[in-house]
Amino acid sequence: MSDFKKFITDFKKNNKNLLLTESEKNSNLLMIKSDLSSIANIAENEKDQFAHEIVSFATSDEFIDILDSKLPPPLPGEDKETFMKRGRQMIRRLLLEKME
Hints:
By secondary structure, the chain is mainly α.
């Protein structure tokens, strides 16, 4: 198990109180549906299904494994903000690939 995968696994195990609540998940679903409304003409039931699929995928072990394999550790001299930006870009790219 890689350091990133171990970190996520340990975090989930030790910080159950920090994981998303149902209310937060619903908020994320509403945000995704709203974003879909602005970029595509999709039926409401399809928005619901798509939003659930994206949230489910983004919180899955499969996604963590893919992200772990694609995102190299911080580069020498790379600050936290730069690494986080690189991580967000990778997450966006992986989610866009999933949508295609």
